[in-house]
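[User] I have long wanted to understand how a fold can be written as tokens. Those tokens are not coordinates but codes from a learned vocabulary of shapes. Could you go through the record with me and say what the backbone is doing? Thank you; the sequence and its tokens follow:
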Amino acid sequence: MIAVVGAGLMGAATAWQLARRGHEVTLIEAYDIGHKHGSSHGSSRIFRRAYADPFYVGLTGRAQEQWRELEDDSSTPLLRVTGGLDLGEGRAPERLAAVLDAAGVPHELLAAEAAAERWPYIRFTGPVLHHPDAGVIDADQTVVACVRRAVEHGADALTGVRVTGIDVLGDDKARLHTDDRRELIADTVVIAAGPWLPDLRLPVPLPPLSVTQQQIFHFRQRERQAQWPILVSKDASMQVFGLPSGADGGPLPAVKVAEHDRGTPTTARTRDGVVDPSSRTRVSGFVRDRLPGLEPDPVAEATCLYTTTLDEDFVLDRHGPLVIVSPCSGHGAKFAPLIGEMAAEIATGHADPHPRFRLDRAG
């Protein structure tokens, strides 16, 4: 039996990938499916192909294929294509264009004037990279679809059950202890606990991980019919992303805007869920200055958690019977079904961990 601890995006996707291959799977989630205590809730996450690192550009292509497979298997639309924009000196649009060109990813580099003609509700101050494959992922529906299909493929799902300890029994068995006093013996345990990973006290040398509480805001569109792309902006003062809000923004069309950095250090157990007012001020100022197509006062706001490595690469490695999956670092959601596939391959012995994702990598 393969146990999967955590039914967020990565754990749910791993359970789906394992179960559809015919493996015996038990998925264990401390809360209800789709809870809002971690990193996987909400109706909007970014999918994009634009990375400065060719390695991740390649992974986004594989992830795109896996999203379509998941949609087909679950009969659920999960990834809506909107196109994407990268702007600001810190994003270096010209360099991104060169990387995408080398990878054969469709894109175009636009002057500010040309971009403004196409997206008049955004104020541009320099060159802009547009790539049409970018879009919005519905994280809530993804988790639900993965868990539903995993169960339909034969997996067991235990909800409201918290894993309190894991004992390694040699190289091929592990015992899981839960808060309802049951013990489960598994051949392999996939641990996709996100921000709870540092609290599990695993018998595994984890790399340094920082957990931060991030603030997100939703701003009403001035023109309801405007079709907003996703966007990533970085300059000397701010690193901001934006995307259509979906249901999280309320009944009228809205755009989710947030800072990628400047999170508040916390833990999964101690986070307070209170929005930092200084972030609200900065993001509203950015909207007022750069996104004139939005009302500058947020209509909704929330918090979520990032779990970040020092190098912002993922963790996806095996240690005896344990497979550690912590692929957030603030940019993991777009890879969820691919991470699920990679974790399933490692858990079943069909693939080795990638060197970039190993527990003992330098940095």
Notes: The CA atoms of residues 1 and 186 lie 5 Å apart. The mean pLDDT is 94. The chain has two domains: 2-45+140-208+311-357, 84-134+210-309. The longest strand covers residues 209-220.
